[in-house]
Fold this sequence. Notes:
The chain is an alpha/beta fold.
Amino acid sequence: MRFHHLAGRVWVCPGDPDPAAVQAGVAVVADERGSVMIDAGQSPAHAREIRAALHAAGLPEPRWLVYTHHHWDHVWGACAWPGVEIVGHVTGQELLRAEAARPWSHRYLREQVRANPRLAPSFRARAFAVDSWDDFAVLPPTRTFTDSDELPVGVRLRHVGGRHAPDSTVVLVPDSGVMLLGDSFYPPPAHLREPDDGPDLALLRRLLDDDYDWYVDSHGEPMTLAQARSEAGAG
Length: 235
């Protein structure tokens, strides 16, 4: 696991390419005034690996941690990032407060899968990801916004919503020409997905902007503007 320089101040660290691992990639906007980490990792163990990769690349420690949305593979590592300000959409704050109240454990995961077998892929991945629940906690954002926000280091946040998650947020780094998409245009989560659900290409097309050269979603390779247009069917 290592960070790769993408453009300007933006570095990306890919997740596990095996879909069964449900491990999202993360990104860092490196700045001497304090870096911005985009998403937290899917577990404390994953977050510790990300921190080691951050140090190996010589990148500054994050001052802010931005959630692209509230799904577990993007936020469950937050408790291993002490001292950061967690930023996310207000809808995600409410959803994560409810998640934080659940009695997470391997036993609880098994009980939930027995009650709803469609949860099995996600909940089994969680069981593999978290080796100990002793210091585990789901952390809601401490700084929230509704439509948009801008951090002091020039990183912009825009709420886009969508069918994948109601709090989906894209992260814009204008000086680097990079847009971080999270899972915003993905179909609904597997346990909620219907057979005809697919990527929300209309949403992706709305996001394309000539001022941005790179588009990064959380489970794929970075795309150039031309590649993103092709992916979105925009010609």
